[in-house]
Design goal:
The chain is an alpha/beta fold and about 500 residues long. It contains 17 helices and 15 strands. The protein has helices at about 5-10, 20-35, 95-100, 105-120, 125-135, 185-195, 205-215, 285-290, 300-305, 305-325, 360-365, 375-385, 390-425, 455-460, 465-470, 480-485, 495-510, and strands spanning about 45, 60-65, 70-80, 85-95, 145-150, 155-160, 165, 200-205, 225-230, 235-240, 265, 345, 385-390, 450-455, 485-490. A hairpin with a 3-residue loop joins strand 9 and strand 10 (about 235-240). The protein is globular.
Length: about 500
């Protein structure tokens, strides 16, 4: 068997056919419902207490801060009321010692001081007026305060629009004093200590922010149903009927929320879909990756979909073929059998031999390579992996593997998107319609709008096309239903999205 045939044989392990897609959708819908009824399920289905989405006419100036890793970002967003906005921001690195501080106060005091510095630089008039009023002993009303959305990308138990208790730190943070405390309250205390005209109005998940940002900038007639991230990680937040979120009534600490819309945005945390592996594909490469990960047995959907893991899946596949004595990948030992007229060598310190050695950007390069003899892929193999003088056949084999892994990721992504669309009833057909009537014109009021963000959906070649191919294969969507689905990029959920959630919170307070 030739090398390309060997690669195609391995690639078949990553096929995810229509019947498996439909099994996945049914399981996803079932786990969505379970998560809405009880905590502790595979799909967390976290109520966000945000009960409406913007329509593009909103106006005002709002603040947003984003603590998502080793940097802290402060933004002010001016909503112009015509689906446009302007944004001013600053970013600062979090000192390593504060990531492992003894007390919460040390970290949150630092964050509040960054907000103070930002206000002095970009909103000094408002800042000075506030201090003059305070000195004069004037009464302060809510309208004198900036409303702030706090994007906090760590696991929290949210119990209100601006209340959430930290479950655990990740990403190198480890401040034991913070566990179990309300992170919004901690930030507000330090803001108040500096007498800043700022109210922490909303605790924000960046995926929820993606949904809000998309709904503001591309409102349409139907509003945005789903905000989804397909990047380093993957997650989705969507608009759910309030009556289906039955676990809210069981929550002892459940905060107040507006019931007038009949809806609530749910943060699905779908990276954990099917941790029990009842329907997810599970190759030997997936098993090995999970076994050697730092969170074995969880986030199994994310480990098959997101950019953080696709490079590692590919590395394990390539390494398996290299070690297999029966395949000829990177084994041109004679210059006479290599179109480069050289012998193929793999450096002893090649990233191929190291966990996480292949970045997902390599997959994008190989996937779209149409150059003669796959020259671009061969250059990337040499530059990034220390594999010199790879043959055209080697590069073509790698491309076959890359396409299979990338396509599976996109088709799995379609499972999540399709399940949300079907579960929420947003593609209910009218009398006389047939799901496969693909030539009928789609009316604006029939559009199902989805906002997406992340490197995979934005930069990976053909990712959306693969998603749409799978959506057409889903029972209840089909060719006509897929045509009604509009997918658009929604940038900066942690900035403008957070500001929009602060706006929703302010409206709830009657501001």
């Amino acid at each position: 068997m030739g090398l390309i045939e060997d690669a195609k044989r391995v690639a078949t392990e990553f096929e995810y056919p229509p019947d498996e897609v439909n099994r996945g959708v049914k399981a996803f819908i079932r786990q969505m419902d379970e998560g809405l009824q009880e905590n502790g399920k595979s799909l967390h289905q976290i109520p966000t207490y945000v009960t409406g989405v913007p329509n593009g006419t909103e106006k005002g100036v709002y603040l947003a801060v984003d603590l998502g890793g080793t940097n802290f970002r402060v933004c002010s967003i001016t909503l112009n009321g015509d689906t446009t906005f302007s944004l001013t921001q600053s970013k600062v690195a979090i000192p390593r010692e504060l990531m492992v501080a003894k007390t919460s106060q040390e970290l949150f005091s630092f964050l509040a001081k960054q907000i103070e510095s930002f206000l002095k630089t970009h909103h000094n008039d408002h800042f000075e007026e506030h201090h003059e009023r305070r000195k004069a002993g004037e009464a302060m009303t809510e309208e004198h305060f900036f409303q702030l959305g706090f994007t906090f990308s760590f696991p929290v138990h949210q119990i209100g629009l601006n209340r959430g208790h930290l479950i655990r730190w990740t990403k190198g943070f480890d401040i034991k004093d913070t566990i179990g405390k309300d992170v919004c309250g901690l930030l507000q205390s330090e803001i108040d200590a500096l007498h800043l005209p700022v109210k922490v109005a909303a605790l924000v998940n960046d995926t929820v922010g993606t949904l809000m940002a998309r709904s503001y900038t591309s409102p349409g007639k139907t509003g945005t149903l789903l905000g989804a991230i397909f990047g380093t990680g993957t997650n989705g937040a969507y608009v759910e009927k309030l009556e289906k979120v039955t676990k809210l009534k069981k929550e002892k600490e459940s905060g107040d929320y507006d019931t007038s819309t009949g809806n609530m945005i749910i943060n699905s945390e779908w990276g954990s879909f099917d941790n029990e592996l009842s329907v997810l594909p599970n190759t030997e490469y997936d098993k090995a990756l999970d076994k050697e990960s730092n969170n074995v047995g969880v986030h199994l959907f994310e480990k098959r979909v997101s950019g953080m893991f696709l490079g590692e899946v590919l590395r394990r596949v390539i390494l398996g073929m290299v070690k297999d004595g029966k395949t000829q990948l990177f084994k041109d030992e004679s210059s006479g059998t290599n179109d480069m007229h050289s012998t193929t060598t793999i450096a002893d310190d090649s990233p191929l031999y190291k966990q996480w050695g292949i970045d997902t950007s390599f997959l994008s390069v190989a996937h779209e390579d149409q150059s003669a003899g796959f020259r671009i892929t061969r250059q990337a193999l040499s530059r990034e992996l220390g594999i010199d003088a790879a043959s055209a056949e080697d590069a073509e084999a790698v491309k076959v593997l890359v396409e299979a892994i990338g396509k599976r990721s996109a088709r799995l992504s379609a499972v999540a998107i399709g399940a949300v669309i079907i579960s929420t009833g947003n593609l209910t057909l009218t009398a006389g319609d047939t799901v496969d009537d693909k030539d009928q014109q789609v009316l604006e009021e029939e559009v199902v709008d989805i906002g997406v963000d992340g490197s995979l959906v934005e930069y990976y070649p053909g990712f959306e096309d693969y998603i749409r191919e799978a959506l057409r294969e889903i029972e209840g969507i089909g060719a006509k239903g897929e045509k009604r689905i509009r997918i658009g990029i929604a940038k900066d959920g942690s900035g403008v999205g957070a500001a929009l959630i602060a706006l929703v919170a302010a409206r709830k307070e009657g501001l």
